[in-house]
Amino acid sequence: MSPALPEGDVPPDDGALPTSVLDGAQRRAFGVYLHVPFCAVRCGYCDFNTYTATELGGGASQAAYAATALDEIALAARVLRDAGLPARPVQTVFVGGGTPTLLPVDDLVRLLGGVRDAWGLDPGAEVTTEANPDSVTPDGLARLAAAGFTRVSFGMQSAVPHVLATLERTHDPARVPDVVRWARDAGLRVSLDLIYGTPGESLADWRRSVEAALATGVDHVSAYALVVEAGTRMAGQVRRGELTLPDEDDQAAKYELADDLLTAAGLGWYEVSNWARTPADASRHNLGYWRGDDWWGVGPGAHSHVGGTRWWNVKHPRAYADRLAAGRSPAAGRESVDAATARLERVMLGVRIAEGLPLDDLDATARATVAGLVADGLVDARAALGADGPRRVLLTRRGRLLADAVVRALVG
């Protein structure tokens, strides 16, 4: 099961936002996240808010989903307009899940059309969909590109069959080069997502996966350490001793190997778990999260943030559809970010990206700790001294491995 929603204030039924969201709105980019909560099967490690098609019916069904999500887009446009926010064309759209490409291409095109009709798309907008390698065709990818999609992120996870089997992934790894080629032929930028630290995965297995990803010529790779969340099927396997998780040294060795291989191939890190060949290949949508921009999350369980106000939708697709059918906001809870939380998040997110965190964003106590972090090899000395521009906290590779410890040192 996916994790419980956070606690928060009860939002108004009409979704109205406080006037505080207007502060600085013109300086913040606006993006849209579209959650598609369907998968062909649920993988044993997954704790995302997803459902198989057979679990749902009625207004929550896969067939009805696009129309339901369009209702929320219409509500979102009304809420933002009534709040007095300036008209801002959408800079980025990210369709995630689940497996968005389980929806018919026409439904994905309708959803993007709804976003375009509600706010307009910036001429250079980045429009991404996630996809599984076994859920796309050359024709479908070409139609998405023709409709305005610019990028696809494939869940490759591994090139090694026994690792994929442990993760309960269903695709054939031999298909990955084909889908990358199809997407690029359609004019789409392509990212591959990898997972390291699967029980039973050797360092040689991991090398094989990274090298296979690079062999496709892809210009963006995400590499995430496997986290086994409570309540998942894999957590039960670990608890019963059926699977053994790797230790921290194994995880660190795999991260360093990935960084070595990706860097040698010309991809530079721009966020702790993400590498891109050029700045244009980076995920602008995800950078918006890390920089604290505004976004509206459409779909069951989706989270949104506008001007320091955050909210999250009800999790179950049936409850989500019922609320929208009744003309009510699907939001389940809401919170306003106070100054202390905003400071913590600015540090936590800012240090994760390669542009670094400006020292001016830290208070005097935090600035005093930076010298010690440099001495410990966690923060780049030249960046901290301002040798190449404004002084900033920029993680070394060792610092990336210990990013949480750097955050704790900076926030006290």
UniProtKB/TrEMBL annotation:
It is found in: Cytoplasm. Residues 24-271 form the Radical SAM core domain. CDD domains: Radical_SAM. The keyword Transit peptide does not apply. InterPro entries: Aldolase_TIM, Coproporphyrinogen-III_oxidase, Elp3/MiaA/NifB-like_rSAM, HemW-like, rSAM, rSAM_sf. One of its GO terms (cellular component) is cytoplasm. This is Heme chaperone HemW. It comes from Cellulomonas oligotrophica.
